[in-house]
């Protein structure tokens, strides 16, 4: 009852101060939360956008290796022996330079009537060579060479025409003159039986792919190809060590690679961010589903918005409690109310000061006035893109360092000495508090210029001075 009566006795000005302080607290909390969310989202998009180009770049390197195999055949008038192919494969150092690729091979095309003569020719040097598995098609597309053969023995003689996925991609490479990939398959040489695919590059009688479909089919000789186990490809390209995102790759409804499982390092079952990107990949479309990881959540975690909210609520509660205490004494109510109003304004100024500290601009430069670093707050304070300042002269900001006087001079000629706090105004009338300090980094002298926007502080000081004058 006493508390209720005390609340009723509070002056409207007390409520105004408490509500205003609460609104300021909520505004600061909201702005800080939004800024944190934007920062987190930007970091996620940056990490996600790095991932796909790495995969595409690695695939382009593998494609280049296949075209080098085509060139090798053409340089031998399309007549390459097993010995020649082994020399070529060794020169590529496939296992060292191309992690994820199981080998590099050559596929020929023969008619069924040519099968016996072809087998006799191959078995003269390799008695174990055979075309498999059997099928009823008119054409045979056997793997003639594959190196290293020891780890790909089951693939020697494998006929692409026995299975629709393989032969479709092989014929598409022949007809387009471009590298083509199969859909997801299980490689016969993969003991783990995990998803994989084949990449084909066509070989013609002519140096360049013929211009028409009819000519391409007529001059077609064979295919240089590479088998891939997708797990090995991704581990060689994007090893999951301290990575901030995890991802899954699918081809239509089939999973090629999956890190979005409970057993994956840093997997987050409830990710903060997620996106899906469709990527054309050598005649196929791979869908990348990318999610933020547990490590991302840990790195990006921040209690700053919560701290601002809690600190503001504590201040508001203290204000309300003090106002209630003031209301309990009618004789001293007016005097105490005036004092608490002043304190309330001071607390608001302090809270604004917290935001000012977070928005300070920092520029690091050397004795030759070359900018070494500038943070993002410089964009807002000086209206200059901080990323464009690095490596440029400090004079682009309007400031100039004079080593002989150990001071920085403003465009107006104002002097800012080392280890002093100087208040200036810039051309748009903004009040700045500027501090210059000297540091030694790695045996080199560097200078730090801190720029703090104090517009709100100046306004608050003027308001406080006016209030004190009013109640004095």
Automatic annotation (TrEMBL):
CDD domains: PAS (cd00130). It is found in: Membrane. The chain crosses the membrane at residues 12-31, 306-328. Coiled coil: none annotated. Residues 347-394 form the PAS domain. It holds the Pfam family CHASE. SMART domains: CHASE. InterPro entries: CHASE_dom, CHASE_sf, PAS, PAS-like_dom_sf. This is PAS domain-containing protein.
């Amino acid at each position: 009852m006493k508390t209720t009566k005390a609340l009723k006795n509070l002056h409207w000005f007390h409520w105004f101060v408490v509500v205003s302080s609460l609104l300021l607290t909520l505004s600061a909390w909201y702005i800080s939360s939004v800024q944190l969310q934007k920062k987190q989202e930007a970091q996620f998009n940056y990490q996600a956008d790095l991932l796909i180009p790495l995969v595409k770049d690695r695939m382009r390197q593998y494609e280049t290796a296949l075209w080098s195999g085509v060139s090798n055949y053409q340089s031998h008038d399309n007549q390459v022996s097993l010995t020649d192919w082994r020399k070529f494969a060794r020169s590529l150092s496939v296992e060292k330079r191309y992690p994820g690729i199981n080998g590099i091979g050559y596929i020929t095309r023969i008619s069924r009537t040519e099968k016996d003569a072809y087998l006799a020719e191959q078995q003269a040097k390799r008695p174990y060579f055979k075309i498999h598995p059997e099928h009823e098609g008119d054409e045979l597309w056997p793997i003639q060479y594959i190196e290293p053969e020891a780890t790909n023995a089951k693939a020697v003689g494998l006929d692409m025409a026995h299975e629709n996925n393989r032969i479709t991609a092989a014929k598409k490479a022949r007809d387009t003159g471009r590298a083509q990939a199969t859909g997801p398959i299980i490689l016969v040489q993969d003991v783990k039986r995990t998803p994989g695919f084949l990449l084909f590059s066509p070989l013609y009688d002519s140096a360049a792919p013929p211009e028409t479909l009819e000519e391409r089919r007529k001059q077609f000789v064979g295919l240089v190809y590479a088998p891939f186990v997708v797990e090995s490809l991704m581990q060689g390209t994007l090893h999951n060590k301290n990575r901030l995102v995890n991802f899954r790759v699918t081809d239509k409804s089939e999973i090629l690679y999956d890190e979005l499982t409970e057993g994956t390092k840093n997997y987050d079952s409830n990710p903060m961010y997620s996106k899906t990107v469709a990527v054309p990949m050598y005649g196929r479309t791979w869908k990348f589903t990318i999610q933020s990881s547990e490590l991302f959540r840990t790195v990006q975690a921040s209690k700053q918005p919560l701290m601002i909210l809690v600190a503001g609520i504590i201040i508001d509660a203290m204000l309300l409690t003090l106002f209630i205490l003031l209301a309990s004494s009618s004789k001293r109510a007016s005097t105490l109310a005036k004092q608490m109003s002043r304190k309330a304004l001071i607390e608001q100024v302090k809270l604004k000061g917290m935001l000012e500290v977070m928005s300070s601009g920092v520029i690091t430069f050397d004795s030759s006035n070359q900018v070494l670093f500038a943070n993002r707050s410089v964009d807002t304070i000086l209206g200059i893109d901080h990323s464009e300042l690095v490596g440029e002269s400090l004079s682009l900001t309007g400031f100039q360092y004079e080593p002989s006087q150990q001071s920085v001079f403003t465009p107006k000629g104002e002097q800012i000495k080392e280890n002093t706090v100087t208040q200036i105004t810039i051309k748009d009338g903004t009040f700045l508090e500027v501090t210059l300090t000297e540091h030694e980094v790695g045996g080199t002298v560097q200078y730090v210029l801190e720029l703090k926007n104090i517009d709100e502080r100046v306004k608050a000081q003027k308001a406080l001075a006016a209030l004190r004058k009013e109640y004095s």
